[in-house]
UniProtKB/TrEMBL annotation:
Annotated Pfam families: Pyridox_ox_2 (PF12900)
InterPro entries: Pyridox_Oxase-rel, Split_barrel_FMN-bd
The protein, known as: Pyridoxamine 5'-phosphate oxidase family protein
């Protein structure tokens, strides 16, 4: 099920409130999880990285990812250990990553990332940095939203 459509308001609010998305990549039989800054637009997630590194190497071999983000995570304490609980909002999903190579697409992806972290502001991009920065787009396939209010 894709909760982006059925729970749009809650999903978009969580994405607005989250500061990090954790990407789960698969390097053959070995899992690899990495937190990244992100942006959102048109049903897709955007993130960036340097041009070299483990994440770049794995994505070049396998573009399928899982991801997780959360907000408002709080432990709800109780005098009895078995009655402790959690309060949170979370998203988990899967998608396919695409490296953006067109300069206009790269800039648009970075604009989405910057808009997430600095809404309403605009920024110039250093052309030399753009040359060595990878910008990725995740086409979301599945998305599951969960909220727990604690008890």
């Amino acid at each position: 099920m894709n909760h982006w459509e059925t729970k749009r308001e809650a999903v978009e609010k969580l994405m607005q409130d989250a500061t990090v998305v954790r990407l789960a990549l698969c390097d053959g039989e070995q899992p690899y999880v990495v937190p990244v800054n992100f942006g959102v637009g048109e049903g897709k997630l955007y993130f960036h990285s340097g041009a070299k590194g483990t994440k770049v190497d794995i994505l070049s071999r396998n573009p399928r990812v899982a991801f997780e983000m959360d907000a408002d995570v709080t432990v709800v304490k109780h005098p009895e250990a078995c009655h402790w609980s959690m309060k949170y909002r979370s998203l988990v999903g899967t998608g396919i990553v695409r490296l953006l190579t067109d300069p206009a697409e790269k800039k648009a992806g970075l604009d989405r990332l910057m808009a997430h972290h600095a809404p309403g502001e605009t920024f110039p991009y250093d052309e030399k940095m753009m040359m060595v920065t990878h910008v990725y787009e995740i086409a979301v396939e599945n998305l599951h939203y969960k909220e727990a209010k604690g008890s």
